[in-house]
Amino acid sequence: MKRKIETKNYEFVVCGAGMSGICAAIAAARNGVKTALIHNRSVLGGNASSEVRIHISGASDSQKKPQLEEGGILHEIMLDNKAHNDWFSYPLWDLTLFNKVKTQPGLDLYLNTVMYDAQSTDGIITKINCYQETTEKHITFTANLFADCTGNGTLGYFAGAEFMTGSESRSKCGEKHAPDKENNNRMGNSILFRAVDRGEPVKFTPPSFAKKLDESDLAYRVHSSVIPDYSQAEDPEEYKRVSSFSSAGTEYGYWWVELSGESEDIIDDYENIRDELYSYFYGVWDHIKNGGDHGAANYDLEWVGALPGMRESRRLVGDYVLNECDILENRLFDDGVAYGGWGVDLHAPNGIKDKHLLPSQVWTFDGTYTIPYRCYYSKNIKNLFMAGRNISASKLGLASARVIGTCAVGGHAVGIAAAMCTEKNILPRMLNEYTDLLRQRILKEDGFIPGLENKDKNDIARTAEFTASSYLKGHGPECVISGVSRDYGDNKNSWKCELSPNTWIKARLKKACKLSQIRLTFDSNFTFPIRMTMAPARQRQQRRGVPPELVCDFDILVLRDGKTVKTIKVRGNHQRLCVCDFDMTLCDGFEVRILSTNGCQTVTVFEIRAY
Which of 219, 237, 398, 606 is 20 to 30 A (C-alpha) from 292? Predict the structure, then answer.
């Protein structure tokens, strides 16, 4: 039979539609780049998808550092989800991601499409070959630029990119917690589950392949809703530490059902790991149900993951390798385009088999660090970006930077970088000359880079004079051009006032000019989580619906000589960043009239930009 063969030509091709790939593809398309997003699964999201169900953690370290919550496209997607998914439905989360990608102009999505080959010449990827299982089509993709967001670094591997695996020695980067000698230890794969209380006893009969486990096998892994008495333990303080690193209760978990395989290559061993994970998980559940009182008599399995989530495999080498020293020393790079705050979270090398070890060691730190642009493109493949857990990092650098929120903001930065490379007709390394502009564009799109302020010369609002109907002490109207679009450190970078029938903030421009866009950044209250999760404890931390602090209804009056020459009406807003486009209009000022919030009596505006 003749094969169905198609060729697709794009400016930018993103392989892998986890959260980093989604953000990279959307960011590039929004900036005018003809983009393809290729994914080998039927649903989007990667480890955050309905197939794996890892909730999105990031630099805020589960709201311990709320000022570091990720903004940008990732936050936008999660706010979309909050607008219509009060009950944490994973089918609705799938819909949120699908809708976001499919409705983005300039972006084409290819689901169920497996990349099996890449061709490169003189360090330039010329094309990749894919197979779409549902249509039986062979599709060749060509592009000027590619991004490897596969997690495993598959595109880079096929193209001949340099990569790292395992653990580096302490002498290589001077990392405090690195081993004396390099080794092939890696963090493993996990499957999750969800159980529900049926209100009456539920029996469980384990499958024949389930492991036979007892308390000695799980001594360092909390697996009961019955709070244990650890006062008589040999080391009570160590047991407390174990508890803090483990999923408590029996409703959701367990990330520590983790295995790294027996072979030298964790990717080659994926199918074997999955099968063995099943045997361990059902062994754990058999022990919980039938191995003593764990408070689980009424619990019934509702869902068990069939697609293990991966933490670590290949890491592609860039012009810089992020390491543990950068993280623990809070290093802020001059070319930093993303940031992290999650602890250096290193799992036991053999996962659940290391029953005498804590499932994870976490070295937390105050503050944040940035990730340099040089970690996001390949050292030897000239037109290859990467984002996600395959960026240029040591094992210990990855131990912090691998969490999904940090991966996603890196993807957003890569998408903007790809757009700039397309505009300038240059390759990724050449953009190092323009990283100041890249960083400013990231801020414009509600990204955050610690230590960086808005210096955009095209932002006409920066030199405007702002007045307001009223304001709370320390939150005057001039705060909307402070240069930082969130509260950070001791600085309060917002105009705040009590909502009234006459609530407004007005900008008077230095001189009359033509405007076609006004961007407003509102308050979504980073102290409350908004992530998709199936963990009941995490769900209880959240508020119903969109954050009430967000401005809902408002009008923008574009002014000329004191008269309104154009009015833009916005109703039902649920986003932190609201971009208002209109026909080019000559004006000497504008006024934003706040009509309502989503429930809060205080109005908060962090930033106003005008173009």
Answer: 237
Nearest to 393 by CA among 429, 419, 369: 369
| Residue 247: φ, ψ to 5° | -75, 120
| Distance of alpha carbon 258 from alpha carbon 247, whole angstroms | 13
Single-letter amino acid code for the residue at 194: R
pLDDT score recorded for residue 206: 97
Find all residues with CB under 8 Å of 76, minimum gap 6, and list them. Answer: 446, 575, 576, 577
Q: Taking residues 212-234, what's their average pLDDT?
A: 74
- DSSP one-letter code for 404: H
Taken in order 161, 340, 309, 218, is the CA torsion positive or negative? Answer: positive
Structural domains of the chain ordered from first start = 4-163+312-444 (3.50.50.60), 189-304 (no CATH), 460-610 (2.60.120.260)
Q: Which amino acid is at 200?
A: E
Instruction: Using alpha carbons only, give the angle 166, 163, 327 rounded to the nearest 5 degrees.
Output: 65
What single-letter DSSP state applies at residue 460?
Answer: G
pTM: 0.96
On whether the CB atoms of residues 120 and 379 are closer than 8 A, the answer is no
Q: Is 470 exposed, middle or buried (0-12, 13-18, 19+ CB in 10 A)?
A: middle
Q: Are the C-beta atoms of residues 480 and 495 closer than 8 Å to each other?
A: yes
Q: Return the axis-axis angle of helices 72-84 and 19-30, rounded to nearest 10°.
A: 110
Which positions ≥6 away from 499 have C-beta within 8 Å?
594, 596, 597, 600, 601, 602, 603
CA dihedral sign of residues 116, 122, 125, 126: negative
DSSP per residue, 156-216: HHHHT--EE-SB--HHHH--TTS-SS-B-----EE--EEEEE-SS-------TT-----TT
CA–CA gap between residue 274 and residue 117 (Å, rounded):
25
Distance CA 545, CA 26 (A): 25
Q: What are phi and psi of 500, to 5 degrees?
A: -140, 175
Contact between 558 and 515 under an 8 Å Cβ cutoff? The reply is: yes
> pLDDT class for 2, splitting at 50, 70, 90?
confident
